[in-house]
């Protein structure tokens, strides 16, 4: 277990025995029958320090209770056109599974615009995908492959990445902070593909700021990454933008191949699951419109430092390459 010792696990378990019942109930939704492995994840996120890991987990459990995260999979985003607009502007999908049984999530970083709804909708959608992954996808993979599967692989498509993406740093920092504080150690590897020159400039800035634990998970692959990814997954599980090397699959005509589309089986199953959960909870009530407002944890120091440094360095990059004025209107509020 590396930095995590059995003594640390035992101490952590003893501390968790003392928490209040509401926190114990939401902890069950986190660990899904594997409490020890979940404690290990939080210990790894805090370098094996039991007290820091305990504080982190307690904060996570309180966040879940305060924001009713256990019920978020029973809160559909309606109407369907609103959800379709979110899917078209927040590109993420499940493309398949690795040979080891890990879910492969594709994220269209470069072409995600986050401009079709409020921040609350995007945060709600992101958390719903996290919860569906942890409560449905991973347990299903565990049963299928006959061993505990608690992590996924992520493939980030940088096709279309431009300096204008700077305008989304605050939203992306919010999402990243939620993941870091409440869903730690859920990704085994982050693969970067179709990276343009501007990404190289960003990566040189960001890489030294990342914690070594995170840095070692990131692999920047050549081109569309197909050959490298085929070492860990079959061709059918490759995101489309890696299969053909033709960039993001956002505009594919065949929705069955486009894992970003609402019409893809993954998103259809997710959306139907959420509607079914709502009907179980409130069988005679109409689905309420409007986003769920989730309290955002105080931004982690690392994420805010990265965001501020990246903004500063990209400003320099912008001027050095003669793209004067393109960032003048992008004022990022870090409050």
From TrEMBL:
SUPFAM superfamilies hit by this protein: CRAL/TRIO domain (SSF52087), CRAL/TRIO N-terminal domain (SSF46938)
Gene3D superfamilies in the cross-refs: CRAL-TRIO lipid binding domain
Domain CRAL-TRIO: 82-239
Pfam families documented for this protein: CRAL_TRIO, CRAL_TRIO_N
Superkingdom of origin: Eukaryota
PROSITE patterns, per the entry: CRAL_TRIO
PANTHER family membership: CRAL-TRIO DOMAIN-CONTAINING PROTEIN, SEC14P-LIKE PHOSPHATIDYLINOSITOL TRANSFER FAMILY PROTEIN
Protein name: Phosphatidylinositol/phosphatidylcholine transfer protein
Species name: Actinidia chinensis var. chinensis (Chinese soft-hair kiwi)
